Amino acid sequence: MDKVDHEDTKAERTEEYWLKSLRKTVERVLPIPHYRERFGAIGITQAEDVQTLEDFQRLPLTTKEDLRKNYPFGLFAEPMDNIVRLHASSGTTGKPTVVGYTRQDILLWAKIVARGLERAGVTKKDIVQIAYGYGLFTGGMGLHYGCEELGAVVVPISGGNTARQLMLMRDFGTTVLACTPSYALFLAESLEESGIAREELKLKIGIFGAEPWTEGMREQIEARLGIKAFDIYGLSETMGPGVALECQAHQGLHIDEHFYPEILDPEGNPLPVGERGELVITSLDKEGFPALRYRTKDLTTLHYGMCPCGEVGWTMERVSARVDDMLIIRGVNVFPSQVEEAILSLGGFEPHYLLVVYRVGNLDQLEVQVEVNETSFFDEVRELEGRQERLKQRIEEILGISIRIRLVEPKSIPRSEGKAVRVIDKRQ
At residue 170, does pLDDT exceed 70? Predict the structure, then answer.
């Protein structure tokens, strides 16, 4: 099939445009036994059988479990002779999910990330410090190649070694920081203790992702580091970081033109644009490992139209939570981001917290451990108790269940150099 042009980002996309791109991915995966068998069961034997978007939405969804069942290379669409790189999920249980890239995939990935970084205001004059992990995790490598494609200077420091991070940030004149939002907050906290004045740094932009974060967290990071923070989205199964990234209008994350998004309800049925649900992604030009209707397990809302920045296309709201992160407590769905939102809406607390779930008899209980900030820690007991009660009421209003609040000392909750640990479930 002819190569689809994705360069004109100001053009309105028609259904036929999307179908032409989607059929190309269907054609790529049909030779794979897993897909051929599942498509055949619903009467799809060739790409041309997909005549409408409704036909496409009949195709079976791809899940992380499908990747594990076909471990390691069973869902690759190219022979290993054409694969130049492997990445794998950072999962801690069972087999990892493995994805492969052709040389063309790597070049495309770099262009996608570079285009997203440009939207956020990054230029070839910037020095970008990448504090995402390097290795099988796609975070570090994806940003690295995108920055080089853009022509920016890359500092591939990876995660950890916070004192060194801050020293090089000052000495190299780093202007852009890329890491998880929780690590950015830890860097801000460490900067305040380091003796390095914020004015000594040239930081102006932060590219943060790999975990859900709230608008309150953004405000904290921006205030403490003196930067503009931008949300980046991606996962290894669909490409890696860069699938979507905010522009300077901050009206949602622009989904790159090389991906087609859908939103599903909990039963897997498509939802209209503007409704919140689970994000499903199909890659349009990936060769080695095409992603077809991949269930991301991320909850968000899609919009389509013209952004104030001038681009026309899909945007997604910041991922509010992951299906995997959801706790069911006494029949109520609870997400850590809901608790974070409550904490950051009140003064006197740090955005560091733990949700500890345990069982008394047959009844689930939730304890929220929250750090008070340095100033509040020395308040009178009565004032601390009042602040604790206000937070308890706020969280209970949001969750709809009774909880226990435990205020803890500043810096007593463990910090993370990668994705933050927010939940300890003691019910198992």
Answer: yes
Cα–Cα distances (Å) from 127 to 80, 373, 417, 422, in that order, read: 36, 32, 21, 32
Q: Position 122: which residue type?
A: V
What pTM does this model have?
0.85
Are 88 and 64 contacting, i.e. CB atoms less than 8 angstroms apart? no
Q: Which amino acid is at 126?
A: D
> What element of type H or E holds 79?
none
Residues 6+ apart with CB under 8 A from 417: 131, 159, 160, 162, 183, 186
Contact 342, 280 (CB under 8 A): no
Cα angle 314, 78, 257; round to 5: 10
Bond into 308 cis (ω within 30): no
Structure tokens that stand for 419 in this block:
């994705």
35-47: per-residue pLDDT in tens? 999 999 999 999 9
Q: With residue 372 as reference, give the H or E element that holds it.
A: strand 363-372
User: Considering the chain, what percentage of its residues have pLDDT values greater than 70?
Assistant: 96
Measured CA to CA, the distance from residue 327 to residue 115 in angstroms comes to 36
Under 8 Å between Cβ of 173 and 180: no
pLDDT of 205-249, one tens digit each? 999 998 888 999 999 999 999 999 999 999 999 999 999 999 999
User: DSSP alpha helices (H): ranges in 46-203?
Assistant: 53-56, 64-69, 103-119, 138-150, 162-172, 181-194
Q: Confidence class of residue 375 from pLDDT cuts 50, 70 and 90?
A: confident
Amino acid at site 354: L
The alpha carbon of residue 334 and the mean position of all alpha carbons in its chain are separated, in whole angstroms, by: 19
What pLDDT was estimated at residue 6?
Answer: 46
Q: How many helices (H) and strands (E) does the chain have?
A: 12, 20
Q: Which class for 259: exposed (0-12), middle (13-18), buried (19 or more C-beta within 10 A)?
A: buried
> Rounded distance, CA 312 to CA 124, Å?
25
Spatial contact of 351 and 219, defined as CB atoms under 8 Å apart: no
